[in-house]
Specification:
Blueprint: E1 2-5, H1 9-14, H2 16-28, E2 32-34, H3 44-48, H4 52-66, E3 71-74, H5 77-90, H6 95-106, E4 108-110, H7 111-117, E5 130-134, H8 138-144, H9 148-154, E6 160-162, H10 178-181, H11 183-200, E7 204-207, H12 210-222, E8 229-232, H13 233-238
Parallel strand pairs: 1-2, 1-3, 3-4, 5-6, 5-7, 7-8
Helix pairs in contact: 5-6, 5-8, 7-9, 11-12
Length: about 240
């Protein structure tokens, strides 16, 4: 099984260790993983801002780099959701490319969804001694139905206990450019999310999108919380959270 790992531009620039954790998990599942060296962005920032021209150019690039793979996997519900949900709209005026895009969409998965529902990974390399709470990132939850999958995998991590927080499905306030355009509203949403994380009394908050991670971690630290760890689910499952 030839799996293309879409690292995502944010992971590449801000937390490469998440990409390496995803790679470790895919290899543990027996996948032949390819990582196109020239990959960049899925086009979501431009698409969400109304710049369809740049978004389409990036989408064509992704299509060319990954369409020969059996599957495309991203450690991000946001980027996987962009490809799977919004590429058909981007390519709507190009029938030949649209068919290619639809075939790519059908083979594109968020990481935990792929591990649970495609390769059916039974054992994970990671070990975690402590309690965690899980934040459901908006795009993965609402566009891809990612909810039970990360929790099923976390249940297989020796020593780890999941304690659900209040409003675990509520947005963290990031929303890409939303956090820039509506900073005051974003800060209020993030504060509420971090209060729920604190109330859970857990050692760490775990989630599946780096944008949410950065937003939540930044708010936690500004609240004076230097103890609660903020970890990507791939890091926990792969046992690389201390890297």
């Amino acid at each position: 099984m030839r799996v293309g790992l879409f690292v995502t531009c944010l992971v590449d620039l801000m937390r490469p260790r998440i990409g390496f954790a995803a790679l470790r998990l895919l290899e543990a599942a027996g996948c032949d993983v390819v990582v196109p060296r020239a990959q960049t962005c899925c086009g979501q920032p431009g698409y969400n801002s109304g710049d369809r021209k740049s978004a389409l150019a990036l989408a064509r690039k992704v299509l060319g780099e990954f369409e020969e793979c059996d599957y495309v996997v991203a450690p991000s519900g946001s980027c996987a959701g962009m490809i799977r949900t919004h590429y058909p709209d981007l390519f709507a005026d190009d029938p030949s490319a649209l068919e290619r895009a639809k075939r790519l969409c059908d083979r594109t998965y968020e990481l935990t969804d792929f591990l649970v529902n495609v390769v059916k990974l039974e054992r994970v390399p990671g070990v975690f001694r402590g309690t965690v709470t899980y934040h459901d990132s908006c795009s993965g939850l609402r566009e891809l139905g990612v909810k039970a999958q990360p929790r099923a995998l976390l249940a297989r991590v020796p020593g780890l206990i999941v304690k659900e927080m209040e409003e675990c499905e509520t947005c963290c306030g990031f929303g890409g450019t939303f956090a820039v355009k509506f900073g005051d509203i974003s800060s209020h949403i993030a504060e509420r999310k971090c209060a729920n994380i604190a109330a859970s009394g857990t050692d760490a908050v775990v989630l599946g999108d780096l944008g949410c991670m950065l937003n939540i971690e930044g708010r936690l630290r500004r609240r004076g919380d230097m103890k609660t760890r903020v970890l990507h689910v791939a890091e926990v499952l792969a046992g690389t959270g201390d890297a």
